[in-house]
Amino acid sequence: MAFELFALTGKRALITGSSQGIGFALAQGLAEHGAEIVLNGRDAGKLDAAAARLAAAGHKVSVAGFDVTQAQAAKDGVEAIEKNSGAIDILINNAGMQFRSPLEDFPVEKWEQLLATNISSAFYVGQAVARHMIPRGRGKIINIASVQSELARPGIAPYTATKGAIKNLTRGMCADWAKYGLQINAIAPGYFKTPLNQALVDNPEFSSWLEKRTPAGRWGDVEELVGAAVFLSAGRRPSSTDIRSMSTAASPPVSRITRLQDLLNCTG
Predict the structure, then answer these.
(1) pLDDT tens profile 169-198
(2) CATH homologous superfamily of 2-261
(3) For the chain, which terminus, N or C, has the lower number of CB atoms within 10 Å?
(4) In this model, does residue 51 exceed pLDDT 70?
(5) Nearest by Cα to 6 from 131, 87, 90
(6) Which residues are catalytic?
(7) CA distances for 77 relative to 1, 8, 21, 57, angstroms
(8) Could you give phi then psi for residue 245, rounded to 5 degrees?
(9) Please, which residues have CB within 8 angstroms of residue 94's CB and are 6 or more apart in sequence?
(10) Within 13 Å and on the Cβ side, how many CA atoms surround 207?
């Protein structure tokens, strides 16, 4: 009975930026709970390799290689999935990038690329998917925020800005779409080992700093985020405008539902 509460059998999940890192871990986790997975990314080789890994494990998977940073491409990509594969029941807006530089030297083109990848993509794909979910009266959208939605650190101000925007876009989506039966939340990871963070993982000075300020004394593993994603993807949840999930490397695995104004992040 407990397992059935979190079963995703018969559900179709689209995860953007899911050929590696957090996106792939969440795709794999949802697949293990019965969901049919639609992987998304711009690198066809990585996407096919990720799909092959899931298929080899016996999961139902397809790929949709559209560019989430382009509004028309996102709209057309979602339309193609709905037409050819079936309804998208779950959307995880995970696509993201990072670029590190002092703010006074930050290249304008990288600022624009960060905005397009980290925030515009969530709006483009979220809107396209919601237009199908609304008439059905149901649907789950999970946006991947960050500990940087709440904090700032030198050298990543534009990234911090985009993740703060994701937090408030999540609130806005819920304010507009909860009345139609959609449930929208965000998962805000702390410091997890991903390709996006590999330069920091490989930096002994940064890793030492992280380990000293984190109760668990280590980086998080992406698989520890799966439980929160499954919980928010399954069953029926309160359509609050002020609920999100926070998973951190604080005391692995740690995941909790908390009101934003009371949020305490052990890696903060």
Answers:
(1) 999 999 999 999 999 999 998 888 888 788
(2) NAD(P)-binding Rossmann-like Domain (3.40.50.720)
(3) N
(4) yes
(5) 90
(6) 159
(7) 36, 23, 22, 26
(8) -105, 140
(9) 15, 16, 17, 18, 22, 23, 26, 144
(10) 13
